[in-house]
Amino acid sequence: MGLSALSLSLVLVFQFLHAYAAVNVSWSTITSDSSKNVVQSNFLGVSFELSFMDQYFGNDTSTIPQTMLNYLSQIRNRTGSNPVRLRIGGNSADSSTYLQNQTSPMLKLTDPDANSNNQPVDYGPMLWDVLQSVSGSVEGVEYLIGVSLSDPNNTDGSKIGGDAKSILGNNLDSILVGNEPDLYTSHGNRPLLQNYTVQDYIGEFSEVSDYLNNTSAGDLLNNQICSGPTICCDWDLATLLQQGYLATFSNILKYITLQHYPQNNCFGSYQYGLPYYLQHSNTVALAGWQQHGIDIVVSNTSAGHPRLVMSEFNSASCGGIANISDTFAVGSLWTLDYALQMAAIGYSAVYIHTREKGVFYNLIDPPNRTLSGDTWTTNPPFYAVLVLPEILQSDNGSIVVDLNLEGSMTSNSTVAGYAVYDAGSLSASRLVLFNYDNSSVEFSLENSASGQPSIKYLASSDITEKRNIAWGEESFVGTSDGKAVNVTRDTDGFSWLPSSGNFDCSGNCAVEVPGPSLAVVYLSDSVSSSNSTKSNSARRTVVPASFAIFGLVFTFGFFYLGT
Ligand SMILES: *[C@@H]1O[C@H](CO)[C@@H](O)[C@H](O)[C@H]1NC(C)=O
Ligand SMILES: *[C@@H]1O[C@H](CO)[C@@H](O)[C@H](O)[C@H]1NC(C)=O
Ligand SMILES: *[C@@H]1O[C@H](CO)[C@@H](O)[C@H](O)[C@H]1NC(C)=O
Ligand SMILES: *[C@@H]1O[C@H](CO)[C@@H](O)[C@H](O)[C@H]1NC(C)=O
Ligand SMILES: *[C@@H]1O[C@H](CO)[C@@H](O)[C@H](O)[C@H]1NC(C)=O
Ligand SMILES: *[C@@H]1O[C@H](CO)[C@@H](O)[C@H](O)[C@H]1NC(C)=O
Ligand SMILES: *[C@@H]1O[C@H](CO)[C@@H](O)[C@H](O)[C@H]1NC(C)=O
Ligand SMILES: *[C@@H]1O[C@H](CO)[C@@H](O)[C@H](O)[C@H]1NC(C)=O
Ligand SMILES: *[C@@H]1O[C@H](CO)[C@@H](O)[C@H](O)[C@H]1NC(C)=O
Ligand SMILES: *[C@@H]1O[C@H](CO)[C@@H](O)[C@H](O)[C@H]1NC(C)=O
Ligand SMILES: *[C@@H]1O[C@H](CO)[C@@H](O)[C@H](O)[C@H]1NC(C)=O
Ligand SMILES: *[C@@H]1O[C@H](CO)[C@@H](O)[C@H](O)[C@H]1NC(C)=O
């Protein structure tokens, strides 16, 4: 009794004190210049491993699961005039076989003994029919697809490119030639070479991309259809770009692609625990991987220059990590932080990866159709792909700036914040405030907001929560149809739910961000996502300092009495 009263008092005291140390949030005006990276609402796409496309999308155009279409519609409904970005690829795009005569099913696993992280399939043009049908159903999806570089003498790339282009038309965004060539040596993919070098790669990239000049859909190289180098790990991007890659391919390259995870779980162990992901400075450092190469890509602002894309990422490679990748803190908050950071430093799109049912970093898990009653589940990363389009939505595109709150870009801090500017008006349209802590933090907005601002929270009860998560008042908890339900504080397990809606910003403009959560502040009515007028009841009552001190004195008094 004594002990629990003591800890309760201490908790209250620290929360009161914490509420006093408000985090000041100020944002500067920005000017228009070509060095500013303008991103669109569909910045955060989803990457699917080729091998498991059937688990999500069915076997042919007549078996596309409605639930999957509902999930994609949820994203599409938030991207305004932009299509949803999907990528189909991964290691399996390099190891699989394309058969033009294979109809239904659109793909089949071919090697039951394959490494679980690289399972080859036989697949055929039905895949493109399914993707085209999906795009029609959700009113706009554009695709990155892969062409294999595993045998550069194999001309199937011409068939893949021709079929995909004929069927997908303008929904075919780009073709990634090869996947993670910097791992070919360590994966034993070039047994005849002691070291597969950048020069070997450039020669092979040239050979395989040339197959795209003569396809059933014509010369695809005319319109910068290719992307690469899709390196992840061992090669230096700047060196590769300067050793001939850019000079040789700049006329056919649409995107310069990277794939990078903060750590791997490929060998049964991993380097970083959950706290790594809660530290914004680690996310900033992570996004700076290949900074020299990124500078080369981003500083080229000439017409038709290749843009920077992260074609695959997630919290840990080889399927993620239990109780890390599948948590609210990592799946939802860290994913948004990393995506916003990449938007701030020059990427034009990023794709979060998802694999077969049961993998820890998946956005959603499809049902195992051989188990009766098994159903779809929504995991924490799916909330990130819903929230980002609402943050970035703008007719003119958006410019994202890290506010370096409390020096969080380089120091230990439990907060982080971004300002999002409309690329047309250059006015700040949104603030994104992260609180990775378990207790509440008050943010004090220093600049005045024009009109009536509103706030919307992505929140949960705990950093390790996996299901009870809400964006505004919507949640996927307990659903299996890919549609959100509305939750309130009366919903079982949601008593912590902060209220989204308009808030008063005249005078002291402070917002309370419960821990853990992310708050999106819509700075004027025109961009408000919600017109409901609600008080910001998540805000804690401001308690006089003397009360807090009294609490402390009282607590210590009790402490001495108790021991
Ligand atoms: C926040 O700003 C207020 C007034 O502008 C100032 O008094 C206070 O010291 C600032 N707090 C921090 C943590 O910088
Ligand atoms: C695809 O085919 C497999 C094998 O016949 C079947 O088990 C599965 O249910 C099919 N998928 C869909 C979505 O119909
Ligand atoms: C998306 O919006 C359309 C109308 O624009 C609506 O019919 C559909 O129900 C919405 N889908 C979801 C999943 O919210
Ligand atoms: C499909 O094409 C492949 C390769 O061209 C061939 O080996 C296979 O026999 C064909 N299958 C059918 C059913 O025609
Ligand atoms: C591709 O073919 C050329 C000769 O046509 C041969 O020298 C080379 O070894 C082949 N490459 C591979 C990876 O098989
Ligand atoms: C292998 O090739 C890569 C890329 O060209 C290079 O960075 C690396 O230093 C080479 N390794 C060895 C052992 O030569
Ligand atoms: C283009 O491809 C077709 C079919 O593979 C082939 O017959 C033709 O010779 C190729 N043309 C050129 C110029 O390579
Ligand atoms: C495609 O490229 C190859 C190799 O550069 C060349 O031989 C061929 O003529 C080109 N085909 C077309 C249709 O341009
Ligand atoms: C589905 O469940 C069965 C029975 O537990 C299992 O053997 C099979 O591997 C599962 N399949 C998938 C795709 O998860
Ligand atoms: C703070 O950051 C330093 C590195 O900058 C790290 O060594 C230390 O563990 C961090 N402390 C906490 C509490 O996260
Ligand atoms: C959920 O709330 C939204 C407004 O936020 C409303 O439009 C919608 O009808 C509600 N859905 C249900 C099922 O109550
Ligand atoms: C939004 O709320 C304001 C009052 O705050 C009201 O005047 C206006 O009509 C509302 N707009 C819509 C579209 O409901």
UniProtKB/TrEMBL annotation:
GO terms for molecular function: hydrolase activity. The chain crosses the membrane at residues 542-561. Residues 1-21 form the signal peptide. Keywords: Hydrolase, Membrane, Signal, Transmembrane, Transmembrane helix. This is Glycoside hydrolase family 79 protein. It comes from Guyanagaster necrorhizus.
